[in-house]
Amino acid sequence: MMNIKDIIKTNKLEKLVLEGTFGIEKEGIRVDDNQKLALTDHPELLGDRSYHPYIQTDFSEAQLELVTPPEQSLKETFKWLNALNDVVQRSVESDEYIWPFSMPACLPETEQIPIIRVRDQKEVEYREKLAEKYGKKKQLISGIHYNFSFSEQFVKSIFEHQREHDSIKEVKNELHLKLTRNFLRYQWILTYLYGAAPFAHHSFFEQAKEEIPLTKPVRSVRNSSMGYHNSTDVIVRYDEVAHYVNDIEQLVAEGTLSEEREFYGAARLRGNAKKIDQLNHTGIEYVEFRLFDLNPYSKLGITNEQARFIHLFSILMIWIEDSKAKEAIKEGTEKNEQTASEDPFAKSAYYQEGMELLQEMQAIASELKVESEYFEVIDQAIAALEDPSQTLAARLTQQIDSVDQYLKVGRKLGTQYKQEAKGKPYLLNGFEGMEMSSQLLLFDALQKGITVEVLDENDQFLKLQYKSHEEYVKNANMTAKDTYISHWIMENKTVTKKILKSKGFNVPDGEEFQSLEEATAAYYKFKNRSVVVKPKSTNYGLGISIFKNSPQEEDFKEALEIAFKEDTAILVEKFATGTEYRFFILDGKVKAVLHRVPANVKGDGRQTVRELIEQKNMDPLRGTNHRAPLEKIKFGNVEALTLKEQGYTFDSVPESGEIVYLRENSNISTGGDSIDYTDKMHSSYKELASRMAVPLGVKVTGIDLIIPDYTKPSTPEDPGYTVIEANFNPAMHMHAFVTEGKGRRLTRDILEMLFPELY
Amino acid sequence: MMNIKDIIKTNKLEKLVLEGTFGIEKEGIRVDDNQKLALTDHPELLGDRSYHPYIQTDFSEAQLELVTPPEQSLKETFKWLNALNDVVQRSVESDEYIWPFSMPACLPETEQIPIIRVRDQKEVEYREKLAEKYGKKKQLISGIHYNFSFSEQFVKSIFEHQREHDSIKEVKNELHLKLTRNFLRYQWILTYLYGAAPFAHHSFFEQAKEEIPLTKPVRSVRNSSMGYHNSTDVIVRYDEVAHYVNDIEQLVAEGTLSEEREFYGAARLRGNAKKIDQLNHTGIEYVEFRLFDLNPYSKLGITNEQARFIHLFSILMIWIEDSKAKEAIKEGTEKNEQTASEDPFAKSAYYQEGMELLQEMQAIASELKVESEYFEVIDQAIAALEDPSQTLAARLTQQIDSVDQYLKVGRKLGTQYKQEAKGKPYLLNGFEGMEMSSQLLLFDALQKGITVEVLDENDQFLKLQYKSHEEYVKNANMTAKDTYISHWIMENKTVTKKILKSKGFNVPDGEEFQSLEEATAAYYKFKNRSVVVKPKSTNYGLGISIFKNSPQEEDFKEALEIAFKEDTAILVEKFATGTEYRFFILDGKVKAVLHRVPANVKGDGRQTVRELIEQKNMDPLRGTNHRAPLEKIKFGNVEALTLKEQGYTFDSVPESGEIVYLRENSNISTGGDSIDYTDKMHSSYKELASRMAVPLGVKVTGIDLIIPDYTKPSTPEDPGYTVIEANFNPAMHMHAFVTEGKGRRLTRDILEMLFPELY
User: Which stretches does the entry tag as region Glutamate--cysteine ligase (chains A, B) (predicted)?
Assistant: First the structure.
């Protein structure tokens, strides 16, 4: 047998052994306001379980299962788990929440427990059979599955430095079999540390009505004989892949198991196909460890620290010696059951073995030069082994001393996790580094069950997939539905204007200049008009001068100089008076109209401006540095000056109903308000804006119109608007969460455009 | 009547009166090698006359007509005229050229002169009728038509400051009628100055075989009674638009003219429709002046200076007093014919009137503060009025004293203009400021007869149109045929690689890093491989380090630091060995394959390296600063160093056949050679490259493959290639003009993709 530890050390594979592919599955049941199992359907918002890659149901209609995609680091895995948790928490009915414990809350009579309601009748029948065999209630027990494999590169390196095996596949099998065998042998330590199901609600038990577990708490009801296990005659071998396959196939053939997937061992070998005999051909892809209780103190059911411990534990399992004997595993399983049934405050029966393993783990951590966080979790484990009261089971037992308390704590934690997820609906945990619109789109895609790959997080680059239909999206609305040239048309203000003008739309008259000399010479054209002087391509309001009346020659020249500081070309345009509205166009339809108002507060005759601002800034939609759809109003110089011009200071008390402005510019980024006008805007302008997208050849655009009176229809004689800009990649989050009016979930419209077959 | 001069002065319209819309039409006949009228068809390369907006034929199949689109300045008009001249000169058969004189070269017998060969039978019949009426030969006289109107803004300003007229249309009519009347009154001065048809070849005359004109040269045969005119009873009034329309309609009704367009007055009023009575409704759009002979000393038939003079002359015509009397125009016409028939060296019979007009013109030029070039042309005109030998007619008469000489000079100038246009086939005169690929595309579009609007010259933005089909093109191949997202996919090297890899293509293994720390920590992954370290997104070869063998840790770190100087993210990739080829893909097909070789010379055993370089640099395809498809090899330090490493200096004499390199890098921009491999490349790689475009979702891309042996087929077991990059907006000019092999005119393929209905 290969000495993996020596190969690693001799060939300096210390970094490689830390690499792996990770995945987490998390179950949890929906309960109603009274902590009773929810009898409602799986939330419709969560798409269709027949294809949903991330959010499924298992046995019961009420049992949600979150599945992270395979990732190359635990950090990535937790990003997904966080995001999926947000999606699920925000998708359950308002009077339901997700129960935080592995053992269920109040269960109804067995016959009332709903089996999954899916179209596939075979799936329903399979679960009916299980219900009959194991009892429906046991199947509501929830937990965490941890999926893992060592990296290809590590396996390859081991292969290159050993002599026993002829193929990478064999080495991979050998490595993961060893991992599994030792994992099963020493799994008790994980149950000791992380067992978190000290008792169950009395409604869980089919016969005995007395509250057995509460009077005698254990480390893990779920891992004890009271949990959901195969019958004791289901024993499979882990010495060779062929034996594992053969044993399970045999159990199915003789009828002990109804299907292969009914094998519930604490560890399963997984291939890349559903049928187990594929393992013989393709080898082990990864292993699945199923023994973890939900950690109710984490909204995800498992903490980062736990996962790091399990990762290092897995490395320990291939590092130390091993036994292929069936008995070793049997013994391990018994130790685990024994540990699960121990009093949470009792010292472990296997304390000595545990301490040796943890010390070895420390030694490995040093050799591998892992990050300090890893050492911390080992220290914590050692401390908990010394002092059982630090284990999860003990902590829960201390906190809960009655049925009432059990339900209360469950409710408190469950509703708290839901509230946390709903508090900032514009963020998607795990991906909060991305632009807000990308987070919203990602949320909507995950909710709908569209497969997402984040191709480049910094670049806001996503791949979306439904069956064989692939779409790429950048910055939430840059897609294959738009053409290359329409982007460049909109990037060039002169070209945009020329095109819109040629199609009869009302653009501000104007001219482009390449040099100060040329522009100065053209003064005669503008001297009797109201004009805007602006750089051709910068977009942030820099270098713009407005002359509402005929400009003096000197002022005009100064404005030109200011504009030329920002760009090599400038525009001089007729100034259009009126209010600016942003029309968001998608596929020929106006999906949202927004007006932005400069930062302001409304007086109540009682509070100072400062207090009014502080109050307004309490809105969870207001944040700082573009991390929220609206920005907090600042107490800066510009704000003070703006107040001064109105005869106020921060300490003035405006009259009731009076609007006091803190800014002249209407940007959201300086605390402005956003007001939805989608339904209020006269239809003639919406019609016009949507028609403008046609010559620009664009599906998704934000068109800015200046409209003096939005209630008055546009007519050919009196258009009543000027179009000043068409924007590619228009912001979407600002329409989703508005200060006033109805939010517009444009990211969902983008998905519908990309995947019409799903809507 | 409005006093236009006073209105201009009082209201400071001096700049506005200079504004206008300009257009030039230039006729010219194709002749063969022997100066005989070409009897061949209109060049097929010049598209279809049934829709061609710029290049037409008039009476004869051999008479080419260039028509510039209306432009807002003479500068723009001349850009177009230059470009159209390039197109036509490069499109005529190799044994033909364009005759530079207004009067034709050797004409065959009348019956052999071909009338236009077009499908429209009515057009042919119309010309047959004209042939009968005027004689075919007269219709081969060529000239320049000058189209002009004052700007809308100027007309509007005049309207606002006068009291006689109720509408802008009336003012516009009045202005242009005055211009026309005075123009006709004083046209003689233009014939005096620019008449350039002192004689005609004897074959031009139907009856008299003697060389009348050569024995007695005149200022302009074309403007004399020997030219192509309506019969003397064709007289129309220019006092009112209604009269003008009425008179021409009357002439058609009574049969004096067969169609309205048979009216050949030296000035025509033009509306926006073909039927003349539209003028009554829409008013005058512009006026057309038809009296100008081809200036044989200009390849365009007219110089910039002439056009400037005509422009100022037009302003003079509305500035000075005016007469509505029919007689005034009749007198002007007679003076013109008289002037045309004068001896080129004779003083003008109307010298005094001319001098007064030119002095008034000087005064106006001062008042309008026009650019100095305008003053120069007035000075030249005054000098020529004083000294007839400075007129075009006199200069020609001095140069030509025999029939033989006439044909020789015509041939010399005509072939010279053709050679000039063909010498740098990669440039399009007038648009030489644009990128080379845009110039090529523009050329191809103009040649084919696609309507082109240059929306933004600096931004390489074109609008192309055929009938109602519009397409926008930026940088010659960025179009609506490509999607928005494909651009961003290719801009992101990591995303490109992920996508290509997921579809089974052979990309270099590698990883992206966001920080030096993270990248340094990953050394263990690359220490035993040959790797390239490069910035993620910069494209110019900066910050790239190559380790052909396992990198030392220190060197690796240094390479990382170098790369991070160029970008915030870097890539470390497996280094692929082999030769790099650029595959240009269009619509799923490989249209060109190119390999670039470092700057080099081939020895001849006789010349020094310096001489060999100088010789190679003589190639007209080699230029400097990217203004030619290939760059001249430089005599710089890098070149000297590269020679030194091979044991050479610039003064060494390499052996015959020996290749000496001047550079290590293969960039064209440092003098490299380009070699076409389109036909040589093994088809399996072309097949692969074209398939790569599919997942990228791109129609036009340049894919770079590293291929060790281009003759050996790619197989699944041994792909034989690595794909290193996919480029959006790939260069096209470098494929069109190559050092070795066949050039590929990709711009034509782009047009075919955009307008399949035309090909």
Answer: 1-340
Q: Which of B2-6, B563-567, B688-692 has the highest mean pLDDT?
A: B688-692
Is the pLDDT confidence value at B142 over 50? yes
A438 in Cβ contact with A462 (< 8 Å): yes
Distance from C-alpha of B389 to C-alpha of B193, rounded to nearest angstrom: 10
- List the single residue in A481, A492, A697 with the smallest CB-CB distance to B480: A697
Cβ-defined contacts of A353-357 (< 8 Å, 24+): A353/A186, A354/A188, A354/A189, A354/A192, A354/A385, A355/A382, A355/A385, A357/A186, A357/A189, A357/A316, A357/A320
The verdict on a CB contact (< 8 Å) between B697 and A472 is yes
Of B482, B494, B514, the CB nearest to A483: B482
| Interface contact A483-B481, CB threshold 8 A | yes
Residue A469 and residue A522 share a domain: no
CA distance A160 to chain B (A): 13
Q: What's the average model confidence in pLDDT over B179-197?
A: 97
Is the pLDDT confidence value at A365 over 50?
yes
Tens of pLDDT, residue by residue over A464-518, are 999 999 999 999 999 999 999 999 999 998 999 999 999 999 999 989 999 999 9
Judged by CB atoms closer than 8 Å, whether chains meet at B495 and A459 is answered as: yes
Handedness of CA A685, A689, A690, A692 (dihedral sign): positive
- B438 lies in a domain? no
Give residue A135's pLDDT band: very low, low, confident or very high (50, 70, 90).
confident
B628 domain residue, yes or no: yes
In this structure, the strands spanning A461-466 and A469-474 are: antiparallel
Distance between A219 CA and the closest CA of chain B, angstroms: 41
In a domain, A414, yes or no: yes
Count Cβ–Cβ pairs < 8 Å, chain A vs chain B.
108
Is this complex scored with an ipTM above 0.85? yes
Structure confidence by residue, pLDDT tens digits, A641-663: 999 999 999 999 999 999 999 99
Residue from B161, B488, B509 to probe the interface with A (highest A Cβ count within 10 Å): B488
The CATH number linked to B699 is: 3.30.470.20
For the whole model, what pTM was predicted? 0.91
Q: What is the pLDDT of residues A241-253, one digit of tens each?
A: 999 999 999 999 9
C-beta atoms of A458 and B569 within 8 A? yes
* Residue among A458, A487, A521 minimizing CB distance to B484: A487
DSSP characters over B131-161: HHHH-TTGGG--EEEEEEEE-HHHHHHHHHT
Q: How many domains does chain A have?
A: 4
Residue A624's domain comprises: 600-663
- Chain B residues near residue A569 by CB distance under 8 angstroms: 458
